[in-house]
Amino acid sequence: MKIIECPRDAMQGREVFIDTAIKAAYINQLLNVGFDTVDFGSFVSPKAMPQMRDTAEVLDLLDLFHSKSKLLAIVANVRGAEDAMQFEEIDYLGFPLSISETFQQRNTNKSIQEALEVVANLQNMCEVKGRTLVTYLSMGFGNPYGEPFSADLVAEFVGKLDELGVKVIALSDTIGAADPALIEEVFKTNTQAYPEIEFGGHFHSRAEHIAEKVEAGLRGGCRRFDGAINGFGGCPMAKDELVGNVATEALIEVLEKNGYDLGMNQEEFGEAMKLAKFVFQ
């Protein structure tokens, strides 16, 4: 079981700039907890994500020596990937691909076809440089724009990514509207059809629906979940009123109740919870 902690997702939509040293201190604390991966920053246009304009500076302040956690950074194009790949500390590059044409334009200013071409380039770059591409398949459980959506359409996109050699796909409930039955169906269909691909769940959810969504993912074969402490964040490109990320503390509780030993350092996690209140005050 893998938990990916997402401070980048928690921070990126905040209007007040978080000081670089504070960002680094928070991420350093997260690196002590025992998460599989920390989604720590992004190499995108400062105009699009001004909060993340200091990702390279934050990276320079991180203490990775005692941490087993891997680092993930989001990119939106080849140029961002080239910037990220200058840093050997970064293990994963994440790219947001959408089933929705409208959302793809809003999120990366590209058509779906153009975004797929970027994915192909990024996958080739990652193979050459020894990195791993994580493709986030946004609007993976519903579409608020009146465009076509079905579980079969999700599977069609997964098939395209499989042809490109992508090995990690995070199915994303971008607007927090996924029905547990659909979550289970989508994961089960794809985990069975593509056993060589690692499928993750990136859910946005109200607190009262977290358990049922996570458990639906588990029944479908998902063994990789994204979270953010206290459920901070959400996707600023999706809606005016955000539905937050899955709260990591709730995610841990659900997984442990379902029998998973996560190997987390609870004391360090408690310190991270305390620091989060300061960072996101």
Task: Give your account of this protein's structure.
With 281 residues, the protein is an alpha/beta fold. It has 11 helices and 8 strands. Helix 9 (210-220) packs across helix 10. The protein is 42% helix and 17% strand. The chain starts with a strand and ends with a helix. It has a single domain (2-279), classed as TIM Barrel (Alpha-Beta Barrel). Helix 7 (151-164) links the parallel strand 5 and strand 6 (168-173). The relative contact order is 0.15. Mean pLDDT is 93; it is low at 235-241. The chain has an 8-stranded parallel β-sheet. It has helices at residues 7-11, 20-31, 55-60, 78-84, 101-108, 112-129, 151-164, 180-193, 210-220, 248-257, 266-279, and strands at residues 2-5, 37-43, 70-75, 90-98, 132-138, 168-173, 198-203, 224-227.
Quick synopsis:
The chain has 281 residues and is of the alpha/beta class. Helix content is 42%, strand content 17%.
Looking at the overall shape, the CATH architecture is Alpha-Beta Barrel
Percent of residues in β-strands = 15-25%
Number of strands: 8
CATH homologous superfamily assignment: Aldolase class I
User: What order do the SSEs take from the amino end to the carboxyl end, as H and E?
Assistant: EHHEHEHEHHEHEHEHEHH
pLDDT < 50 runs, ≥5 residues: 235-241
Structural class: alpha/beta
Shape: globular
Total count of domains: 1
Q: Mean pLDDT across all residues, rounded? A: 93
Order of adjacent strands in the largest pleated sheet: 7-6-5-4-3-2-1-8
Radius of gyration: 17 Å
